[in-house]
Specification:
Blueprint (H helix, E strand, L loop, with lengths): L1 E5 L3 H18 L7 E5 L5 H9 L9 E6 L9 H7 L7 E7 L3 H4 L3 H5 L6 E5 L5 H14 L6 H11 L3 H15 L6 H7 L2 H15 L3 H13 L4 H24 L5 H8 L3 H11 L4 H19 L5 H20 L1
Parallel strand pairs: 1-4, 1-5, 2-3, 3-4
Helix pairs in contact: 7-9, 10-11, 10-12, 11-16, 12-14, 12-15, 13-14, 15-16
Length: 328
């Protein structure tokens, strides 16, 4: 079986790849021993042929071989691939994923040799537009057990555009902030400001350097600029959780690049690169303390235990005192 996944919308193509892998694992390989990933940009045709012809572990069942970047590879031996693909054994399911627009794909002779058929499936993911894009936003919010008003959907699409990677991230932030309430247009206006996102990284950079006075100044500047304290807390908590997941993954896979981290954490590759750089500046212990402090502060505000205006400042004072006590 041969499955092609391509298109400019890499978010949906990645989601489809994840679904295929999950479905295969549930049906054929819960332990994952017969699921193989290969770098199509680096593998030679002969090596690929050998990998595809290998038999499943324990001599039964099926194998899922995922190859990324092969179709877009410069100087790829398409003639050799055209011979290899028809000889794939019935026990192997080959998935070819590539970041190719449908227009570029039309120019690739190899794809023309394997049109859509019972043994060759094409999934093309062109960018969503118009009603299809707004429907995706509504469905994504609903899938996450959230609610969003129609004006907020339109506002979000107008502000972000058709980049589903960014839309996914913005929806995640909005859901965290709304805490079960319906997402409103004003929430979108407040939360999807790109400059605020950059300033969150700046605050975290200052904390990672243990420059708590600089972090405090940046926080006060954000609040003075109109960003609500509770919204600031939600944004910080979300980003710190992502940093903690990235730090944990990098501890296990220190050579992981932005593409791998993006795939594992569900981030856009550009955001993954920034996250990797930021995560390396934190110790796991500091990130855990930050998550605990931010979560307790957010919960305290929602339950009315203390004022939002003092919550983040109190976190920084507490962390600064903690660092001083460690040095004494």
């Amino acid at each position: 079986m041969l499955i092609f996944l391509y298109g400019a919308d890499t978010y949906r193509s990645r989601e489809k790849l994840r679904e295929l892998r999950q479905s295969f694992a549930e049906k054929h390989d819960p332990d994952g021993v017969n699921i193989i990933r290969l770098d199509g940009a680096k593998i030679a045709a002969d090596d690929l042929s050998g990998a595809l012809r290998s038999q499943p572990f324990f001599g039964q069942g099926k194998r899922l071989v995922i190859v990324e970047g092969l179709l877009a590879k410069k100087n790829a031996d398409h003639e050799a691939l055209a011979v290899i693909f028809p000889s794939i054994p019935e026990t192997t399911v080959l998935v070819l994923w590539d970041e190719l627009s449908s227009e570029t794909a039309k120019k690739i002779a190899l794809l023309k040799k394997f049109p859509h058929s019972p043994n060759s499936t094409h999934h093309v993911f062109d960018p969503l537009t118009g009603p299809s894009l707004t429907k995706w936003v509504k469905d994504e919010v609903k899938r996450r057990q959230g609610k969003i008003e129609a004006r907020a959907v339109q506002h979000l699409v107008e502000h972000v555009g058709a980049d589903l990677w960014r839309l996914h991230g913005e929806i995640e932030k909005l859901l965290a902030y709304s805490s079960g309430a319906e997402i409103r247009s004003q929430d979108v206006e407040a939360l999807t400001e790109g400059e605020a996102e950059e300033n969150i990284f700046a605050i975290l950079d200052a904390i990672s350097a243990k420059n708590f006075s600089a972090a405090s100044r940046l926080i006060r500047a954000q609040v003075a600029g109109g960003l609500e304290e509770q919204l600031l807390l939600s944004m910080l908590l979300r980003q710190v959780r992502i940093l903690l997941m990235a730090r944990s993954y990098l501890s296990q896979s220190p050579r992981a690049g932005k593409e791998e981290v993006a795939r594992e954490l569900g981030l856009h590759p550009f955001v993954a690169q920034k996250t990797i750089q930021a995560a390396k500046n934190f110790s796991p212990a500091l990130l855990v303390r930050l998550v605990d402090s931010l979560f307790n502060a957010e919960r305290g505000i929602k339950t009315g235990r203390f004022s939002p205006s003092l919550a983040v400042e109190q976190i920084l004072v507490s962390m600064a005192a903690n660092e001083v006590s460690r040095e004494l």
